[in-house]
Amino acid sequence: MIPFVQLLGVPKVSFDNLEVVFLSDKRFFLLSYLAFKADWVSRDQLALLFFEDSDSVTARKNLRHLLSRVRSLTWVNLESSGEQVRWLVQSDVAEFQILLSSHRHLEALDVYHGQFLSGLYPDPPEFSDWLEQEREALHNAYRDAALFAAKQLMAESKFDVAQKIGFQVLATDPLSEDMLQVLLTCAAQTGSRLKALKAFESFKTMLRQDLNLSPLEITKQLALELNQKETKIMIPLEKSKLQNFPVQPSAFVGRDVDLSEIGSLFAQPQVRLLTLVGAGGMGKTRLAIEVAREQAVHFADGVVFVPLAGVDDLVAATIAALNLPAQSTELKLGFLKNYLAPNNLLLVLDNLEHLLEQATSILELLAAAPSVRILTTSREALNVQAEYLVDVMGLDVPKTDAQQIEIFDSVQLFLRNAKRVNPQFILEPKDHEFVILICQLLQGSPLAIELASHWLRVLNPEQVAEEIRSSMDFLTINQPDVPLRHRSMRAVFNASWQLLSPDQQLVLAKMSLLPNGFTLESLGKVAKASPSILFGLVNKSLVTRNNNRFLIHEVIRQYSQQQLEPMQQEAAMLELSLLCQSWAQNLAAHNPKRSGAENVEQFEQEFENISAALEWTMQTKPVIAAQIVTDALEFWFSAAKKPLAIQWASQLLELPELQTRDATRANLLSVRSFAGYLILDPHVRLLDAQQALDIAVEIGDLTAQAKALHAVGEAAGEVGDYAKAILSVEKAMSILETLPNIKLEVACLNQLAHVHWRQGNLDLARQVYESLINKSIQANLKRGLATGYLNLSYVYISLDDLNQAKHLLEQALVLYRDLKSTVNLCYAVLVLCDVLLRLGDQVRTTQLLEEAGMLCTQVQEAGSFICFYWLCAAIFQQQQNHAKALRLDAIASRWLSAPGLEPSLQNGETNPFKKAQSTTFFSAEQVQRFEADGNGLSTKQAMQYALGSLEIFKGAPELVRS
User: Fold this and answer.
1) Who contacts 809 (Cβ-Cβ below 8 Å, separation ≥6)?
2) Residues 6+ apart with CB under 8 A from 763
3) What is the pLDDT of residue 595?
4) Higher model confidence: residue 739 or residue 16?
5) Strand, coil or helix: what is 276?
6) CA pair distance 83, 40, nearest whole angstrom
7) How far apart are CA 497 and CA 562, in angstroms?
8) How far is it, in rounded angstroms, from Cα 484 to Cα 913?
């Protein structure tokens, strides 16, 4: 019998009623390749594929050893013929390709079980390259077949089947616009309007984030028509022998994904106990009722809803809900088991969290009644083996820049309740941002959204959002038909709080001080808690996990934080501040435990928590705050947050506690001087740096002196005092000979070389940069190495060696991307654009400018904008489009008057970007006349004009800076 090999999806081989799953092992890589080829393959080809890094003799020897290992697998029958090898098998890839070639597309889709060789991640480079190529080719073939089949089904009016295929393809290929168009078209016929519109919104967001593009006009038109289409969804009601659903005051909204997941679980016979678990106010009861309605048809004896809020006896409450006579305490469980035993019904046990100790009764009922299933809602899992869990989270919430916000479940609920309490309410475009903000602040909590929308009777959306930001206690109503526990979010969380042990209460309250969630490290440092405490909080739905972070719903966070005593809060904030201080020290350390990129990434992830710690320490422990701001200098630069560093340093320098002339004050002045690069007036920066140096010399602190001297050198170079810049940097390097600090030493070398370059001493600048690069390689300083490559490229640009500059810039880009250094990446991309433009590569220049535009809007520095506009202008000048070139040159020239702009940007002789312009560019008089004609643009308009003119963006990014 010829073995059958599945290569599409998880690879495995089937033979003689046995099945072997392939492992990430070179033997299975070889077998996969042979099964795919389904023919003779030469040994040379295999040797090259799997042992590319070896010479031919060694590769053939390694291949013989590998073939020997493969033959040791008893179920493999490899054939050899001279210099060729074959494994005679059948495969799903061959079947898939045959079906495609005979135009049997629907059958081909059934064969495609997933990505080619899913789960295999091979090491051999050549094999990896081959695998990626084939994966892409097979997936493209699958996508094309799916598109053909879907269109054929649409022609046969089988829109529901076509739509199902559409969703399947988009799940693996979310940027397939052709399939999205099919989905939108089918939705107009099937009534699945909201699901399709959500798919469109997701596609649009991903397209913008990944490629900075917008959907095609035809796609947007289909979505618009579908959004305007009125649909009526009829819910069939099946009459059952027992059906006691509570009457609901409003229609059910959303939860399509949850309903689908729960339906899939109930379709499995082993799922007999299912718990909808979630925090208070998440809509568990409402969802359970909707599930019961959908599932009623599958239970011959009906569905019984058992409300347990305020009840202390689970079995007695169930007997009452079944309209059975009350039983004595000792007989009631046996009586209920006997009654349920022959029945086929669904029991819905609502609000079970306070009766978890009675879970054994549930297990006994399931054992006695094999055709009974139980659906429970609880703020805490029952924690028994028979239980299946579905986490009930908030309704889906639109992102800040969403256009069609009405398609999101949270917004639909908000608007439906708004209309109920205020029939005159109309959602105006000006209200969109505030409705989105309300839903985001409440993180989609249905109860919180209902409470918030209730206030639209007297407030507008902006006022509601502001009240929510101020206090959770705003979320309250006083309506007699609403249960007391649902009349305010405080009442909801009071109930949850009472279910916690004192230790759990304290840990939750302490971790609520962290606005951006926490990690296990933060848990141990701030709350001095173990993972076992965290497990209990997760189990009670008060904390959720997102990868390696643990999150607390914003409204729960507000409530829990209010439960802390002042001394407890002070202790926790001190621990958080000390933790933030250690993260900052890792950034500044000569020998950090982790790489620089990892430390920067951690600081970025924790930035909201660090900001909270800084706000507290500036008032209570200013020295700690100063050390965090000082040590995090690398982050302020790499993450485009220099303005914040300036703000915090300035606030700290004004505090009475930091007026002492000590190292803390000196370092803060140095940081403000550094962070002010291209932001503050360079003369002001020089004053800060000089004050820092005076203090450091006065107290005899060599480390502070070295930092201050470097700051003086940076600022002096900006104001054009090159002699002072060189002298200051050389003094700093002299100190560093006795006080090793490789990061500062590399920074000084960079500044020294930069001054030499500005003065036109190109050979000397090149030598210093090469020394910087060598030191960075020896010390494994990626950031120093990237800086060396970038700045050395300036020297080669000045020498007109553009190919060498391009080579250096390509290396710098790789490093900056790995380091996630936004500011440096921005300038590296801009310089590379300049070089490519001068080399005549307009196509790649235009492609890179797309990324440059995004980076400039993040960096928000005058220099980056000027460079960007000049490059855009240069492209148009080369294309003889003088009108657009003139306008963009005028925009760039206006930025040159910005205060604090360094001389190298103003100097057209030394600035590499300015030199990129053609000699036919415009005079100052022409620019002034152009502006006088009223054609000047704001910064935002300028960026939109530049990007729109180049046609590299379908929609221009928004700018914060005016």
Assistant:
1) 789, 790, 793, 828, 831, 832, 835
2) none
3) 64
4) 739
5) strand
6) 9
7) 12
8) 67
For residues 11 and 34, the answer to whether their CB atoms sit within 8 Å is no
Q: Is the pLDDT of residue 521 over 50?
A: yes
810 membership: H or E segment, kind and range? helix 802-819
- Reference 336, options 304, 310, 312; nearest CA is 304
Give the Cβ contact number of residue 395 at 10 Å: 24
d(CA 884, CA 869): 11
Which has the closest alpha carbon to 528: 582, 568, 581, 580?
A: 568
Enter the tokens of residue 170. 């988009």
C-alpha dihedral over 145, 151, 155, 156, to 10 degrees?
50
DSSP state of 351: S
629: nearest Cα among 821, 568, 917, 643: 643
Beta carbons of 138 and 130 less than 8 angstroms apart: no
Cβ pair 842, 950 in contact under 8 A: no
Residue position matching structure tokens 């120093």 = 784
CA 83 to CA 47: how far, in whole Å?
11
CA–CA separation, 73 vs 203, rounded Å? 46
Of 927, 943, 932, nearest to 893 (Cα)? 927
**pLDDT at 659 (0 to 100):** 93
pLDDT, one tens digit per residue, over 548-567 is 889 888 778 888 888 889 89
DSSP 247: P
Q: For residue 21, what is the enclosing H or E element? A: strand 18-21
Q: Check pLDDT > 70 for residue 901.
A: no
pLDDT of residue 488: 65
The whole-angstrom distance between residue 529's C-alpha and the CA centroid of its chain comes to 28
Instruction: Answer whether 774's CB lies under 8 Å from 807's CB.
Output: no
Given a contact cutoff of 8 angstroms between Cβ atoms, the answer to whether 114 and 9 are in contact is yes
Q: How far is CA 64 from CA 46, 126, 283, in A?
A: 10, 18, 63
Q: Which residue has the tokens 């550094």?
A: 674
- The values of phi and psi at residue 157, to 5°, are 65, 25
Interatomic CA distance for residues 870 and 892, integer angstroms: 6
Say which amino acid occupies 598: E
* Cα(836)–Cα(814) distance, integer angstroms: 17
Contact 259, 522 (CB under 8 A): no
- Per residue in 586-603, pLDDT (tens digit) is 888 744 455 667 777 888
Q: What does residue 8 show for φ and ψ, rounded to 5 degrees?
A: -90, 110
Q: Is 382 helix (H, G, I), strand (E, B) or coil?
A: coil
- Residue 775 phi/psi, 5-degree rounding, is -65, -40
Residue type (1 letter), 669: L
Residues 355/386, Cβ–Cβ less than 8 Å: no
Q: Considering all CA atoms of the chain, what is the largest pairwise distance in Å, rounded to the nearest integer?
A: 101
Q: What is the DSSP string of 111-151?
A: H--SSBTTT-----HHHHHHHHHHHHHHHHHHHHHHHHHHH
- For 458, list phi and psi in degrees, rounded to 5: -125, -15
Nearest alpha-carbon partner for 346 in 252, 277, 244: 244
The mean pLDDT of 923-948, rounded to a whole number, is 43
At 54 the three-state DSSP class reads coil
681 with 899: CB under 8 angstroms? yes
pLDDT tens track for 376-431: 999 888 888 888 988 888 888 888 767 678 888 888 888 888 888 888 888 888 88
Buried b (16+ CB within 10 A) or exposed e, 500-518: beeebbbbbbbbbbbebbb
Structure confidence at residue 774 as a pLDDT band (50, 70, 90): very high
* Spatial contact of 649 and 672, defined as CB atoms under 8 Å apart: yes
- Please give the structure tokens belonging to residue 943: 């960026």
Q: Tell the residue number behind the tokens 């505030």, with chain if given.
A: 434
d(Cα 868, Cα 827) in Å, to the nearest integer? 10
Helices (H) and strands (E) in the chain, counts: 45, 14
Distances (CA, A) of 34 to 21, 587, 700: 16, 49, 72
Token pair of 382 as six digits: 């029952």
> Within 10 Å of residue 842's Cβ, how many Cβ atoms?
14
